[in-house]
Design goal:
heterodimer, A: 1012 residues, alpha+beta, globular, B: 472 residues, Alkaline Phosphatase, subunit A, two-stranded antiparallel ribbon, 17% strand
């Protein structure tokens, strides 16, 4: 880039007399070539000269000064960069850096002009600039244009004329919705001759729900969103609720400061809602390692570093990660400061080892709006049945009195919950009883056990589904050293959740004992009850991460009573009434189970002497069996409804969220960044070179989030505006969108960037308003046609003397083909889908048990941001078209032009099928004459009508294909059968094949995949 | 010339009508690295033009293949002395083992070739070409688990996100082929315990994605989307491209965007690949003796042996960096049985590749590298019996070999302690290997850099030295 900059400078007559500006001209040279040694890390390396601070650079180092203001010849810096003595010449050969003659000239000139220093621009608060005065006052449409035009006029350039209406509506539709305008939308715009026609289009697009999807695409890249964990095994995770939150936030135009704060610390906001918690998934989208044998502490550090790098790149445009191992080489960030920011993100109750399948805690249940509605509907129905029961309470009471009287005189009746009963062993249960099909639960299932035990052993198994060996695999309730111990174990030392009662169980007397487990794979998921009361558990080990089943193989162990985990663990004593449930029993249910009295004995007690548990038990049995019909039926319906509710809840997707540990974790400076080399303890804090936390902000992650969006923060608004500028104009005002540090590039329009940042912040962080300003500008509306002179002068279009023209990002290449074909599914959000993908791509790389099962029906045609993203095997079309790989935060947009892309567009079934449907639309909607049909197809692909010459090529191409397919029904059939959605059978197949071929040609046009 | 980008010649022919010389030169500067590698590279006269990297994925045991430890017989079954282990970290798979029983290899070793290089009986074919290879017995790595360790070998860093070695070389040196990518990858399945692999192991990281490795596959299209749709024959595709070219040319004349001209060139390149890749992957014209040399597996598409023949064919056609991944070396248990199966698949073809290249006069300018991502422990994972044991991951020392392209043949480099646990002499790490391979290609690893996020990155991160003793 420096090259381009110098090229531009050289193009200005008399550049040698120019005034050198430190920030623009000098610092980039020093930073890139010198700071590696003479930068912020110099002191640590015992190098006396520092060039990153003015005082140090100009100080007297034993009679010699690197920089003597106004005197280049006496400045040692100049001597050392110009000396002919190889050994003394700076930068040293081994550094890999060399200074060009221009760079040396710039440094000389700067020192000659007094060596004026400036603080790094990006760390200074933006100052709202006055609009520059321009010669051509008629051109600007809004404020942005003054800055663009001012630079153009200074460069001696003229803006380009406005683009044609067809081009403009296609361009702005792609930028704001990710989809090109349809022919009907183009026509409407062409026919609207009012002055507000364009603005109306812009407003329509901003209001479209496609807008949120468009904006989310790039946000997902930055947030390294994926549907799998990454690293080696790369199992599936569920973060699409976060993805949908992002879409919704963009669509509702949530204030960007709010959008930021909720993603950084939504969980810490007062009364945090489910959605605010889901938002924090931003910092949980990092990879998670599940490889057998890893050392979890190592990866726990990597996750925090990833959060830091992502957060700093996205909001601060900084690469804080560079200070992980040593002081930053270029930017004023010390290693200690890195760990101070690290501390904000280090307080999550998490393990370095991720769950092999599914989400890793902390989590939140994240029902979709549909599921929330279904839940509310069920709750209403449950309440309605309560009302029915209440209505019939009088007659029920009468029946109750009679029933109790009968009970008292009748036989023994016992109560126990029946809902989701998995197995029961009534009466005395012999030690060692086995049942092959009972309690076949895995680690993500919910289950409960209940039973009566009289134990005469202090190390023994009460019940289990475990191998019969020491350090067994499976789950079980044991006595260990006389204490009850619920355990779920995969590998004894490294993959288990083991808990233990804090106090010993009284041996040799009967106890009712119940154990529930909620499927969370964590120690907190265990609840243990003794004699109906929950008992305190302490966690012995909490690192369960793999299910019992392995690579699709079922784990076969029977349920055992009084046995399992080896002969030494055999139970001694007596056991009665063991029950297994495939749900979590409530505390009330357990308490009632522990009553130990049959109902007829309870009935014999006067009402007032019954315990609450006894009363409940009586109520439940009565409602189940003895109440009058109306009541009993209402109750029965309610029981079913409650089961439905439980089943519904189990289908709720979860979402990984940020949370704060109850006991704050300490953070240490890690020597060389290594997890096992902790040094000095550090407290959370923001870097000293940036403003302090806003007053009143807590010194935690919430405070950090508030700091990011505080008015004093010089970075967030600038970095954000710059990234959206990149999205619209192709290149950021600061090209290095991820780096606003000293190594970052000088902005092409610094005042414009500041203007945008301040306007954004002061205007209420209104992203839609800012995007509207960008696309309403005259600069944006220019034609993208380039004259040879302009191309030579400004190949990257940094000066914006023409409109932007770029190949669309991967997602939009696919989406616009599906859109032209009329296949695109409009549905927003939901689980990720698996569209066409060549066979075997996953299989040849991954381990045994994850298969690419292609989606069906309209899920084949969802927008590409819904495509299932497996980190280790990214969707191939996305990878071909330069998508970010979602391993780590990516904010720079990357475009290459390769033959693999050509093959992809010509031969991928996605595009072959899309072409077939564009062909079908040409025949059905394009009119009768070939010319009209071809014209319609051309418009579907490019948004404009073909020129006469283009029409001629198309006509000839159609004729070629008609001939090619003539008399070859097999050829026609073979060509038309690709893709799962059949064509309209009423169309002539040969013609359809021919139109489909022309349509494929159209979808392959440079223009069809380009925003022009 | 890198065919994945526009050709310079093509660019001139398309645009000389319309664009001034000044414009042209800056456009070419802008894309200077795209057409043929970086200006100024190679930095010095290279020994090698290309690399064939035979990655043995899962980590083969140095103790059973390359690092002969006769003294271990006496220590058999005894706990690994603490003086050797020195509290170094172990994986979570064996950290909790009560004992660490020393497991000498059950395989015999013998000196081979004139150099007397000591190799295992599992490698009869490699033994015959021992005088051609350079055995490196003193490699070590920082990573202890597969994914980070493979990532480290591929990119010089344990965490994903940096460019792979092949991408660096494609970026620096470009390709020598008119119609094939600069960096090609092939994957084959072994018979042992396979660990997952990932596309990103050959990704271009922060380099432009055109430098990513292109995976050639055995099933379906050798390159994704290579074949025309059913019913669409070559003549139709030719006409399609002619008309596409005409329309794109009209657009170019109107718009003057050089990207359009690049796109036209890429479609032509794609068309050529549609012919050149099937020709390349069609082994039917290889003579009988070639299949005999590479062994019985070589007739099976997608096998390691067939991929070795393909590697030679790719090398002949100018591909810069050819990388094979053979899975299945992760022998935590049943090592004696499984390693034999892996060697049956890999020994003969690897040795054949050396011979084949030598016969064609290509060995001297081709570097072959053979090795996994770390070594394996001397102690048995799980129970040690008379004829069975397993070995856990071991990053402290392991062995690889290289051949050709400037490596010193018939050389054994480095030494480990009596337990093949720590390095006793001449340690070399992953960065050193990278620096040395780049050196063979005429590239100074310190000077092949790419600026990203403000930092000048290189393959060797902040380390690496060229190990001159490995080179002739």
């Amino acid at each position: 880039m420096m090259r381009l900059f110098l090229l531009l400078l050289l193009a200005i007559p008399g550049w040698a007399e120019r005034v050198v500006e430190f920030n623009r001209d000098v610092r980039p040279i020093l930073s890139d070539n010198c700071f590696g040694c003479h930068g912020p890390d110099a002191t640590a390396k015992k190098i006396p000269l520092r060039l990153d601070s003015e005082a140090a650079a100009k100080s007297d180092l034993g009679g010699r000064r690197a920089i003597v203001e106004g005197d280049a010849a006496s400045s040692v810096l100049i001597k050392r960069i110009t000396t002919e003595q190889k050994g003394l010449r700076m930068p040293p050969l081994a550094s890999g850096h060399t200074l060009t003659a221009e760079q040396i000239g710039t440094l000389k000139l700067w020192i000659g002009q007094g060596a004026k220093w400036q603080k790094h621009w990006a760390f200074l608060a933006p100052v709202k600039p006055a609009l520059p005065k321009v010669k051509d006052a008629k051109w600007p449409v809004n404020a942005l244009d003054y800055f663009i035009l001012d630079r153009l006029e200074r460069e001696g350039l003229r803006p380009s004329p406005e683009a044609s209406k067809e081009t403009l509506i296609r361009r702005v539709s792609i930028d704001l919705t990710g989809l090109p305008a349809t022919p009907a939308e183009v026509d409407a715009f062409l026919n609207d001759n009012s002055a507000e026609a364009y603005e109306r289009v812009v407003d329509r697009l901003l209001a479209s729900s496609r807008y949120g999807e468009r904006m989310a695409i790039r946000w997902l890249d930055g947030a390294r969103y994926a549907d799998t964990n990454g690293y080696q095994f790369d199992g599936e995770r569920t973060m699409w609720r976060w993805r949908d939150w992002v879409i919704q936030a963009f669509n509702s135009n949530m204030r960007f400061d709010r959008f930021t704060l909720e993603q950084i610390a939504g969980d810490m906001l007062p009364g945090a809602t489910m959605y605010q918690k889901i938002a924090t998934g931003f910092n949980r989208n990092h990879r998670g390692n599940t490889e057998d044998g890893i050392i979890p502490e190592e990866y726990a550090v990597e996750y925090v570093v990833d959060r830091l790098e992502t957060t700093s790149a996205m909001f601060m445009g900084m690469t804080l990660g560079c200070a992980r191992c040593h002081n930053h080489k270029y930017d004023p960030i010390t290693q200690k400061e890195f760990y101070q920011v690290f501390a904000y993100f280090n307080n999550v109750p998490e393990s370095g080892r991720a769950m092999k399948y599914g989400n890793s805690p902390p989590l939140v249940a994240a029902p979709t709006p549909d599921q929330q509605a279904a839940l509310a509907a069920l709750d209403a129905k449950i309440a309605a049945e309560d009302a029915v029961i209440a209505r019939h309470s009088k007659e029920a009471h009468k029946a109750r009195v009679a029933w109790e009287a009968k009970l008292r005189s009748g036989e023994t009746v016992n109560w126990a919950p029946e809902v989701m009963l998995d197995a029961s062993f009534p009466g005395d249960v012999p030690v060692g009883t086995e049942k092959a099909d009972a309690a076949q639960f895995d680690i993500e299932d919910r289950f409960s056990f209940s039973g009566w035990f009289l134990a005469d052993c202090s190390d023994c198994s009460l019940l289990s589904r475990m191998s019969e060996s020491a350090k067994a695999k499976g789950f079980g309730l044991h006595l260990v050293g006389g204490k009850l111990a619920p355990q779920v174990i995969n590998v004894w030392e490294t993959d288990a959740t083991k808990t233990e009662a804090e106090t010993p169980l009284e041996l040799n007397r009967w106890h009712h004992i119940a154990w529930t487990y909620d499927g969370s794979k964590m120690a907190v998921g265990h609840t243990l009850y003794v004699d109906g009361k929950p008992v305190a558990l302490k966690t012995g080990q909490d690192n369960l991460y793999r299910p019992f089943r392995n690579a699709g193989a079922v784990y076969k162990q029977p349920f055992r009573v009084g046995a399992g985990a080896g002969k030494d663990m055999r139970f001694r004593g007596q056991i009665k009434d063991v029950r297994s449930y495939s749900r979590v029993l409530t505390a009330e249910e357990v308490e009632s189970l522990a009553v130990g009295l049959p109902l007829n004995r309870i009935a014999a007690k006067p009402e007032a002497q019954r315990t609450p548990a006894e009363r409940r038990q009586m109520d439940w049995y009565f409602l189940d069996h003895a109440a009058p019909e109306a009541t009993r039926k209402a109750w029965a319906r309610q029981v079913v409804l409650r089961q439905d509710r439980e089943r519904l809840e189990r289908t709720f997707p979860s979402s990984m969220v940020m949370a704060e540990s109850a006991a704050p974790k300490s953070t240490f400076l890690l020597a060389r960044g290594q997890y096992d080399k902790p040094g000095e303890k550090v407290e959370p804090g923001v870097p000293a070179s940036l403003p302090p936390l806003p007053s009143g902000a807590p010194n935690n992650r919430l405070g950090f989030g508030q700091w990011l969006v505080d008015a004093s923060n010089p970075l967030t608004a600038r970095v954000t505006m710059n990234r959206y500028w990149q999205g619209v104009f192709g290149v950021g005002l600061v090209k290095t969108v991820e780096d606003f540090g000293l190594q970052g590039e000088w902005p092409s329009h610094p005042e414009l960037l500041d203007w945008l940042a301040i306007e954004f912040r002061e205007g209420g962080w209104d992203l839609k308003a800012m995007l509207k300003q960008m696309v309403m500008s005259a600069a944006y509306r220019q034609s993208s046609k380039a004259s040879p002179e302009l191309l030579g002068r400004d190949p990257e279009n940094r000066l914006l003397a023409r409109g932007p023209r770029f190949r669309m990002p991967a997602e939009m290449v696919r989406d616009s083909a599906l859109h032209a074909a009329g296949l695109l599914t409009a549905r927003i959000g939901g689980p990720s889908v698996k569209p066409y993908q060549p066979e075997g791509l996953w299989k040849e790389l991954i381990m045994q048990d994850m298969e690419y099962v292609q989606s069906k029906g309209d899920d084949l045609y969802r927008r590409s941001l819904y495509t299932f993203w497996k980190r280790t095997v990214a969707p191939p079309m996305m990878a071909n078209f330069d998508s970010a790989l979602r391993e780590a935060c990516t904010v720079r947009e990357n475009r290459t032009n390769t033959p693999l892309q050509a093959l992809n567009l010509m031969n991928d079934v996605t595009f072959v099928e899309a072409a077939r449907f564009v062909g079908q639309r040409m025949m059905k909607e394009g009119g009768v004459e070939p010319e009209a049909r071809l014209r319609y197809g051309f418009r579907l692909a490019t948004g404009r009508a073909p020129s006469a010459k283009e029409a001629e090529v198309l006509r000839a191409n159609l004729q070629f294909h008609l001939d090619y397919f003539a008399g070859k029904p097999d050829r026609v059939t073979a060509y038309l059968k690709q893709g799962e959605t059949p064509s309209d059978g009423s169309l002539n197949p040969r013609e359809l094949a021919s139109y489909a071929s022309v349509a494929s040609l159209l979808l392959n046009l440079d223009e069809a995949i380009t925003k022009e | 010339m890198n065919p994945l980008e526009m050709t310079r010649r093509h660019f001139f022919s398309r645009t000389s009508k319309g664009i001034g010389v000044a414009a042209l030169s800056s456009l070419l500067n802008r894309d200077a690295q795209a057409s043929g590698g970086l200006p100024g590279l190679p930095h010095f006269a290279p020994k090698a033009k290309r690399v064939i990297y035979l990655f043995q994925h899962g980590a083969p045991s140095q103790l059973d293949l390359f690092d002969y430890k006769p003294g271990l017989t006496k220590a058999r079954g005894k706990d690994l002395p603490e003086s050797v282990r020195m509290g170094q970290r172990l994986t979570g798979m064996t950290a909790y083992q009560a004992t660490f029983p020393t497991a000498p290899s059950v395989f015999k070793f013998e000196p081979r070739g004139q150099s007397g290089m000591v190799l295992s009986e599992l490698l009869p074919h490699l033994s015959k070409v021992a005088d051609e290879i350079t055995l490196m017995r003193s490699l070590h790595t920082d990573a202890i688990n597969h994914d980070p360790a493979v990532t480290f070998f591929q990119t010089g860093f344990q965490l994903a996100g940096r460019p792979s070695i092949g991408s660096w070389i494609a970026y620096g040196l470009g390709t020598l082929s008119e119609d094939l990518p600069a960096f090609v990858v092939m994957v084959s399945q072994g018979k042992g315990n396979a660990q997952a692999l990932a596309d990103r192991q050959w990704s271009s990281g922060f380099l432009p994605s055109k430098y990513a490795g292109v995976k050639f596959r055995a099933g379906g299209d050798p390159v994704l989307y290579l074949s025309d749709p059913d019913g669409y024959e070559r003549a139709a595709r030719r006409r399609f491209l002619d008309d596409l070219g005409k329309l794109n040319d009209l657009k170019l004349a109107d718009q003057q965007d050089p990207e359009i001209s690049t796109r036209i060139a890429q479609y032509e390149m794609a068309f050529r690949m549609q012919a050149s890749v099937p020709e390349l992957t069609d082994l039917s014209k290889e003579p009988e003796r070639v299949f005999e040399m590479y062994g019985p597996d070589s007739r099976k598409p997608g096998s390691y042996a067939a991929n070795c023949i393909l590697a030679r064919r790719l090398a002949e056609r100018g591909v810069r960096f050819i990388q094979l991944f053979h899975r299945g070396w992760d022998q935590h248990n049943n090592l004696p049985r499984d390693i034999r199966l892996q060697c049956e698949q890999t020994d003969q073809p690897s040795a054949a590749l050396i011979q084949d290249l030598k016969q064609r006069g290509m060995l001297e300018d081709t570097v072959i590298v053979w090795g996994g991502e770390f070594g394996r422990t001397v102690y048995s994972q799980g129970t040690l019996t008379e004829d069975n044991y397993g070995r856990d991951h071991h990053p402290r020392c392991f062995a690889m070999w290289a051949a050709g392209g400037g490596f010193k043949p018939g050389t054994t480099y480095g030494e480990t302690d009596d337990f093949s646990y720590n390095i006793a002499r001449d340690p070399m790490d992953v960065h050193d290997l990278h620096a040395t391979v780049l050196h063979c290609l005429g590239v100074d690893h310190l000077r092949l850099t790419y600026k990203f996020q403000g930092r000048h990155y290189r393959l060797t991160d902040i380390q690496g030295r060229v190990i001159r003793d490995l080179l002739s």
